[in-house]
Amino acid sequence: MPSPLGGGAAALASPRKVLYSGWLRKKGRGRKLLGGHRWHRRWFLLSQHDICYLTGPSASSVRGTITLHGAKVTVRAHPKYAYYFSIATGLG
Q1: CB environment 37-51: b (16+ within 10 A), e (fewer)
Q2: Res 2: pLDDT
Q3: Angle at CA of residue 25, ends 22 and 46, nearest 5°
Q4: Beta carbons within 10 angstroms of residue 25's beta carbon
Q5: Which own/partner pairs from 10-14 qualify as long-range (CB within 8 Å, at least 24 positions apart)?
Q6: Contacting residues for 30 by C-beta, under 8 A, at least 6 apart
Q7: CA-to-CA distance for 73 and 34, rounded, in angstroms?
Q8: pLDDT digit string (tens) for 18-46?
Q9: Which residues, in sequence order, are CB contacts of 27 under 8 Å at separation 6+?
Q10: Residue 39 pairs with which residues in a beta bridge?
Q11: What are the residues whose beta carbons fall under 8 Å from the beta carbon of 46, sequence distance 6 or more?
């Protein structure tokens, strides 16, 4: 369950106001055998302008950031994941 006003080490070092935080799974960029993608469990921090993700709530460095300005969020059905959505940023 997401935590309102959650945290993580990155939230403490950043001026961003964290609106929600919690565990999500994100599809990896690389490909595994047979053409599938590997899913990674990450700790996410949602702010007004972006989502950043870390390996865990006490991680000291951000693994990546997704800018939300101009992004499109689509809720989709997935046979394995109940709350599946995608974010298209137009950046590839």
Answers
A1: eeeeebbbbbbeeeb
A2: 47
A3: 40
A4: 14
A5: 10/45, 10/52, 10/54, 10/59, 10/60, 10/61, 10/62, 11/45
A6: 37, 38
A7: 28
A8: 999 999 998 877 666 666 778 899 999 99
A9: 37, 38, 39, 40
A10: 27
A11: 2, 18, 19, 20, 21
Amino acid at 42: R
One DSSP character per residue, 31-61 reads --GGG---EEEEEEEE-SSEEEEESSTT-SS
Complete domains list, the chain, with CATH: 3-88 (2.30.29.30)
Q: What is the pLDDT of residues 81-92, one digit of tens each?
A: 888 999 998 765
Q: What amino acid occupies position 35?
A: G
Per DSSP, the chain holds a count of helices (H) and strands (E) of 1, 7
3-state class (DSSP) for residue 82: coil
Take residue 3 and report the two structure tokens written for it.
């935590």
Residue the block writes with tokens 């298209």: 88
Amino acid (1-letter code) at residue 31: R
Q: Residue holding tokens 């000291």?
A: 60
